[in-house]
Amino acid sequence: MKKFILLGAVFILLLSSNTVFSCVCFFVSNPTPESIRIERQKDFNRARLIFSGEVIKLDEFKAEFKIDKIWKGDSVNYVTMLTGTKVNEDGTYTSSSCDYSFELGRKYLIYAYGKLDELKTHSCSRSSFLKDAIEEIEGLEKITPHKDVNKLP
After folding, report:
1. Domain locations in the chain as residue ranges
2. Does domain 47-153 have CATH number 3.40.50.720?
């Protein structure tokens, strides 16, 4: 019995010695259609660029997208976004659970923030896999119709 108590105490000490931070997103439970519309409009206003596209290149630091449609921002065919991963002084990498984890070959709806040469998104944003964004796209279309990048001169 003493062994179990001792092992339990050691386990608790080990867990408490490492600080773990996770991303905390705040969402309204049971939002009304009107509150969703208002929040979408706020996020639309805050974003630098809103687009759908496929990740065509990916490394630890950057994801390059081939854009299909744009709801906000200049009409461009490609955009590079930062993944959020940073290099530490000792050469190791650091990333956060708030960073968005892109996958090569997947299509996304992206709300991008920041300077044009340092665009990022985060896991608490409205960004998502394109296949899961049907309602979000319908809402964006009510704010402004998309520009189809493939049909632009």
Report:
1. 47-153
2. no
Q: Helix 134-143 to helix 33-46 angle, to the nearest 10 degrees?
A: 70
Tell me the whole-structure pTM to 2 decimals: 0.81
How many angstroms separate the CA atoms of 59 and 115, rounded? 20
What is the tens place of the pLDDT at every residue in 77-108?
A: 999 999 988 888 998 888 888 888 999 999 99
**Structure-token pair, residue 140:** 């964006």
Sign, CA torsion 23/100/111/130: negative
The residue whose two tokens read 């092992």 is 7
Contacts 24+ apart (CB under 8 A), 18-25: 21/96, 21/97, 22/97, 23/96, 23/97, 23/98, 23/122, 23/123, 23/124, 25/123, 25/124
